[in-house]
Amino acid sequence: MSRPLQCLLSSVMLPAALCLAGCGKGTTAPPKTAGAPIKVRFQTDWFPEPEHGGYYQALAKGYYDAEGLDVEILPGGPNSGFLTAVATGRADLGMGNSDDVITAVARGVPVRIVAAEMQHDAQGILFHEENPVRTVRDLDGKIIMAGPASVWVQLVQKRYGIKFHLRPLAGDLARFMNDPTFLQQCFVTNEPYFAQQRGAKAGAVLVAGLCPEYDPYRVMFAGSDYLAKHPEVVRRFVRASARGWVDYLTGNPAPANALLRRLRPDLTDDFMAYSIRAMKDNRLVLGDAARSERMGLLTRERLQRQIDLLREVGVLDKPVTVDDAATLEFIPPP
User: Fold this and answer.
1) Which one of 122, 159, 221, 306 has the fewest CB atoms closer than 10 angstroms to its CB?
2) Pair (133, 60) in one structural domain
């Protein structure tokens, strides 16, 4: 999975377990629930960034506190093993791509999806505007830097019969900047900004825009044992997180951005505004109301289509059902 360039180049070193429970002090918070707060460890898939903004907004504005939760956000990073952290109990809940979670479940990893963080994944194709990518056919014969095991790569090659020259994914833009015909897997919320800052007339298209069949969620998931023992805690966490995401994208994102900047001084206001705008423009988190999408929503039909696609490209080790991989009982109401 491609990750943001600025994270790969960041010199900011974060501890493996970074507690942010007190960061929301000074904000006006709703009343707490009765009793001592319950500790919850939430594992992210990367260093703190705007794509995690809803969680930091919930922390900064006291939404977790209002649910009686003392949430600790554990930053990820390269090879952070976010799925393993949740499966082994080092973290209680985590975030990631729905394809990755479904594939892990098929391999026997004890985790389960509980809600959508993003209705649509931010993976895209970065291109130079003089050589744009408008349809999946525009990939034919091109040189593309991408993860060779990426589901979308296998789908394009198998279903569409499109051939391109694959280069291993690297954490920089050097090759892209030096070759106007070069294509690179990216996050539409990140790499286009940095390519443009370095002088390229660059654009990006969502992979789901090229291949509508490939439209995974980004999700919140829990360890199976934790979910069975603490369903009400999971429900509170999802509810507060969804509230944080809606507020981050429709209200004032400054509280979350202040926390992010404290943890990542390299995150500029301009970049964070770009990422937020990209999430809004592409309807990544809140979805498309015309398609009955909303924050947190999972549907059985979409999950089944993802499972069928993963089976088609041959990445599932054994059969898996929607109920094996996910539960719909924690989705926040409209």
Assistant:
1) 159
2) no
Provide the H-helix boundaries in 78-173: 82-87, 98-106, 151-159
Query: Residue 275, exposed/middle/buried by CB under 10 A (0-12, 13-18, 19+)?
Result: buried
Flag whether 280 is in a domain. Answer: yes
Domain match, 251 and 190 both: no
pLDDT tens across the length of the chain (334 residues):
334 443 333 323 333 333 333 333 333 344 455 678 999 999 999 999 999 999 999 999 999 999 999 999 999 887 778 999 999 999 999 999 999 999 999 999 999 999 999 999 999 999 999 999 999 999 999 999 998 778 898 888 888 889 999 998 887 899 999 999 999 999 999 999 999 999 999 999 999 999 888 999 999 999 999 999 999 999 999 999 999 999 999 999 999 999 999 999 999 999 999 999 999 999 999 999 999 999 999 999 999 999 999 998 888 989 999 999 999 999 998 8
Q: Tell me, yes or no, whether 110 lies in a domain.
A: yes
